[in-house]
Design a protein that fits this description.
rod-shaped; mainly alpha
Length: 158
């Protein structure tokens, strides 16, 4: 067999090698994307866990109870602390909601739990007073306003 007769076979083998390399590359990219998404979800879960853990400090938990009952009775520094606490919770929960189309199968059902958490965070006299004061300041993305208003509207209808 001459070299000119082997050339088409070599071309076919080379093309097959390129195709197999592309298939392998696509597989690796898919695996990397999955791992990246899982890492992002782990980070979100950790931030949520840390946020919820703030109330493990009994002094802070008592402050939250006071703030939820009567926002207007708080000092300016306490209003700031309560407001930053609520904002942090809203942002963390909002991140979950924003990425809910990428929820891994193992976390399906989390949306309902997060909605309940947001409802519990905001459906008290102090948080509603804070929202009325804070909403006009424009510190949130438009979808966040919709999310918070929806939760508060649902509470007001009950």
């Amino acid at each position: 067999m001459s070299l000119s007769q082997l050339a088409p076979i070599a071309d076919i083998l080379a093309a097959l090698g390129v195709i197999l390399s592309l298939i392998f590359l696509a597989y690796e990219l898919r695996q990397n994307r999955k791992q990246s998404e899982l890492a992002n979800w782990r980070d979100l879960l950790e931030s949520l866990s840390n946020f919820k853990g703030l109330s493990n400090n009994l002094d802070f938990a008592e402050f939250l109870e006071r703030a939820e009952r009567d926002y207007d009775a708080l000092t300016p520094a306490e209003k700031r602390a309560f407001g930053m606490y609520l904002e942090q919770g809203i942002h963390i929960i909002g991140n979950f909601v924003k990425h809910n189309d990428t929820i891994p199968n193992k976390l399906v059902g989390m949306e309902g739990a997060l909605h309940s958490l947001l409802r519990d965070l905001l459906n008290n006299k102090g948080a509603r007073a804070w929202w009325i004061e804070t909403k006009p300041k424009g510190r949130f993305m438009p979808q966040t306003y919709v999310m918070v208003d929806t939760v508060l509207d649902q509470y007001n209808k009950v």
